[in-house]
Amino acid sequence: MHVKFEKMDGWIIFLALIGLGLFIYLYPKLYPQSSIRMDINKQEAVDLGTALIEELGYDLSQYYRTVNLDYDWNQLSYLNRVFGSSETNRLMADSVQVFYWAIRWSHEKTSSLQIGGDEEVARDRLDQIFGQIRLSIDLKGKPIRFDYRPQRNEERSSQREESSSEEKDRQIAESIMNRLRNFYRGEWNSEGSSERQRPEGRARQYTWHLNESIAGENVSIRVTSMNGRVRSFNIIYHIPEPYSEQKRGDDWNGVVAVILGLLFFILVIVYFIRRLRADLMDLKSGLIPALVVSLGYFIYFWAQISPDSGDPIWEILLGFVISAPFVGAGIWVLFSVGESITREVWVEKLIVVDTLRRKILFPALGLAILRGFALVFLGLGIISLLNYAGIHLFHGFFTLGDTHLPFWTFSWPSLYGIGSGLLSSMYIICIFCLFLIPVIRSRFRRRIWFMIILFLLWSFVSMPIPRLNPFVLRMGINGLIGLLFVYFYLRYDFVTVLTGGVGMPILFYGVTALYAGEGFFTLQGILLLGLFIVFFILALIAMKSEPPSEDIKSYVPDYLRRIYERERIQRELEIARNVQLTFLPRRNPEIKGMNIATLCLPAKEVGGDYYDFVELGPRKLGVVIGDVSGKGISAAFYMTLTKGFLKSQAQNISSPRKILINMNELFYQNSERGFFISMIYGVFDLDARTLTFARAGHNPMILRRPGKGLVEELSPPGIALGLDKGDIFSRTIEERSLGIEQNDVFLFYTDGLNEAQNQFHEEFGEDRLMRIVETYTEASAEDLLDRTQREILHFTAQAPQHDDMTAVIVKIV
Questions:
Q1: 378: pLDDT confidence band, cut at 50, 70 and 90?
Q2: Are 496 and 607 in the same domain?
Q3: Ranges 85-99, 144-158, 779-793, most confident
Q4: Quick one: which of 521, 341, 293, 390 has its CA closest to 31?
Q5: Is the same domain home to 544 and 597?
Q6: What burial letters (b/e) apply to 38-72, b meaning 16+ CB within 10 Å?
Q7: Which residues, other chains included, contact 688 with Cβ-Cβ below 8 Å and sequence gap of 6+?
Q8: CA dist 519 to 354, 358, 509, 516, Å?
Q9: Which of 235, 406, 642, 802 has the fewest CB atoms lying closer than 10 Å?
Q10: Judgement on whether residues 327 and 203 belong to the same structural domain of the protein
């Protein structure tokens, strides 16, 4: 396999380096994650929170803890739309709290319950029963909000207690406020208090207001005390109208994505079943991608394991064991179907994949990885540039998508980045590049429609990086990035775009971790960026390696080999069919006084039915029809052999019985045991007005005599050729002679006519054949045979033909 560094590659690398520079330059000006400064890490936040909760007088021994990095969606969207992304990131890093550690202590009884559906909603409902404590601490260590929800039995017992005095509750609230003043500098003025009745007693709420605004927002601290305890406190940023109530805009996106996903799932299943039944897939080809995705899913799953969750590790691993087969099976089916379709359209897109089956490092792989890196850099640069334009020209604003930021929350963020990048990108690239692109291309030849449809479909797919709102703006950016992937796929190959798809989120996560300014996350960023360096070195080594031999390039999947073999056999059968047709009469004899029509329809490409004519004089004609046991090539071979035997005997012997006896001896000597042929041979003598014939185990001949109003079957004794060496055959077979008259009709046929079956496995039968011959008395031989064929086809309807059908009709005129 020879690879060539094209001139266009140089331009793409040049543009990719520009894209990388744009991404690095615009990153702190655009993306909210750049403002994350880990002054305290997760464990430090837990320690601070635990100390604060215990100081407030709450016992945490009966609770289990979960910790997530979260953010205030309303605050982020407001700041983005008012100040722009660059100033927003500065404000978030300096004074405005958007990101925070969300710590929740839930009662230990809830950890053992099975929860289905929306886990967050279910947990909240359970916490209403068993109790919950929530605390939010920003990344600088400032407490943001606290909320205590008692157990129901505690509520009932609290109702029997005497409520604390207003003075005591005020003192408790002021003590908390004094502590919060240490974190939130400035002049705070009291706005007084209010009361409200709760099921567990009377709650008193105290509010303080900051004299100066922050980022155009008024700030308040609200403390709620009850029964001599602090029940909640909250730092409240009063977002000005009309920014306070903004819909996220993701609901419609989610609904459409679900509908498209369902339709796509149905489409893939339909293609899978059809191609599986047609033997157009190599199921083994999807096993390695399925294993790779399962590995990525395991890495993704393992990265989520945290001792803070309170869940036993075996339960987490059990969830992986149950779900992993479905994840792996999905990519197995998708890759198998997509690969088979792609091979019909662009087999060159899979050359690197095919070579990987035999060789680990080779130049084409190295070049594909380098081109994939170019796609990563160029893609992130274009995304950043489009986001920057969307913010400044179309008033776009960022959201982070997921409520929780898993990269910052899990124990091993680098593993999460690798696992999620591999998992999501493999599915996305297989869906679009292996499946949708060739399917759409095969149906829409005009390039403009091809690109428009892919743009619209890809517009619903977002990379796992911050997403720009509003939704229409995000769709446009998604669609344009999708077209970039389409361009790289059409120009290069599958491995190139897969490298780009996997590398894009990993590079973004790596840069994000480096911006955190905290040792642990810096290490995670170094690990992710180090992965890029490792693969870059491997790509250079592969470029210098020995090219694989040409036989690797010519790899052909098993199913294609089977297809080629079937096509070869089909071509040979067509040749055999054409040869066989040359052994059948090219035209029917034209003898005055006889009207002849013939039909021969093999059940397969070649058949074992045989008919022929032997011209014995101007007014004398031999007619033969036979049926070799079995079908296909072997039957056709013996049919051809029989023709030669007949021609050699009929010219010198006049007796049909003697001819069949001689033919039986020759057939028995030259055929394998188990093969036999039934036959009728008759000689029409128009001068003598006679038909002399003998039957070797064949279907009866049907005779219609209009003058006598008679239709009958003629079946003199005889056994098939090849069943006996000769003694029994010669003793059994008889010759019969009968007179012929004008308008007599003789029907010679094989059992493919009378044994033709419909969908209910009912046979056409001899009675229907005789009824047709009896009914159409005035028809010519051609019309009668045509009527017979139409009656059989009408009877069998959609049922397949299971045997050769051959008939000869002779009408005396």
A1: very high
A2: no
A3: 779-793
A4: 390
A5: no
A6: bebbbeebbebbeebbeebeeeeeebbbbbbbbbb
A7: none
A8: 42, 42, 15, 9
A9: 802
A10: no
Closest by Cα among 740, 751, 628 to 683: 740
b (16+ CB within 10 A) / e for 533-545: eebeeebeebbee
Question: Which residues 6+ apart lie within 8 Å of 679 measured at CB?
Answer: 610, 624, 625, 626, 627, 642, 660, 663, 695, 696, 697, 698, 720, 721
Can you tell me the distance from the alpha carbon of 163 to that of 161, in angstroms, rounded to the nearest whole number?
6
Q: Are residues 544 and 642 in the same domain?
A: no
Distance between CA atoms of residues 98 and 79, nearest Å: 10
Whether residue 691 is found in the same domain as residue 544: no
- How far, rounded to the nearest angstrom, does the alpha carbon of residue 671 sit from its chain's CA centroid? 53
Range list of H helices, 554-632: 558-583
Cis peptide before 470 (omega within 30 of 0): yes
Would you say residue 541 lies in a domain?
yes
Print the domain residue range for 339.
282-554
Helix axes 471-491, 494-515, angle to 10 degrees: 130
Residue 653, pLDDT > 70, answer: yes
State the total domains in the chain: 3
Residue that the structure tokens 């049919």 belong to: 639
Question: Is it the case that residue 311 has pLDDT exceeding 70?
Answer: no
| Cα distance between residue 217 and residue 565, in whole Å | 76
The predicted model scores a pTM of 0.70
Which tokens belong to 97?
Answer: 């709290």
Question: Phi/psi class of residue 251: alpha, beta or left (left: φ > 0; alpha: ψ in -120 to 50)?
Answer: alpha
| Domain end point (choices 554, 573, 599) | 554
CA dist., res. 105 & res. 367, Å (int) = 52
Q: Using CA atoms, how far apart are residues 1 and 17, in angstroms rounded to an integer?
A: 28
**460, 461, 463, 469 alpha-carbon torsion, rounded to 10°:** 0
| Same-domain pairing of 85 and 216 | yes
CA count, 13 A, side-chain hemisphere, 766: 15
In a domain, residue 262? The reply is no
Give the ranges where 139-286 is alpha helix by DSSP (H). Answer: 152-160, 166-183, 251-277
Q: In this structure, which amino acid lies at residue 738?
A: L
The helix (run of H) or strand (run of E) holding residue 660 is helix 656-670
CA distance 784 to 500: 71
Q: Among 185, 207, 238, which residue terminates a domain?
A: 238
Cα gap 308→180, rounded to integer Å: 27
Taking alpha carbons only, the member of 143, 346, 116, 353 closest to residue 233 is 143
The single-letter code of the amino acid at 376 is V
Residue 606: its pLDDT value, please? 65
Q: Which of 531, 460, 454 is nearest to 489 (CA)?
A: 454
Higher pLDDT residue, 284 or 484? Answer: 484
What is the CA angle 413-465-82, rounded to 5? Answer: 120
Q: Is residue 94 part of a domain?
A: yes
Q: Token digits for 166? A: 């207003």
- Does residue 124 carry a pLDDT above 70? no
Alpha-carbon span 361 to 372, nearest angstrom: 16
- Distance (Å, rounded) from C-alpha 612 to C-alpha 624? 5
Q: Are 74 and 152 members of one domain?
A: yes
Same domain for 53 and 178, yes or no, is yes
Give 148's strand partners.
133
User: Is 745 a member of any domain?
Assistant: yes
What's the token pair of residue 483?
């077209």
Alpha-carbon distances of 214 from 87, 96, 97, 240, 291, rounded to whole Å: 13, 7, 10, 12, 52
Element (H, E) at 697: none
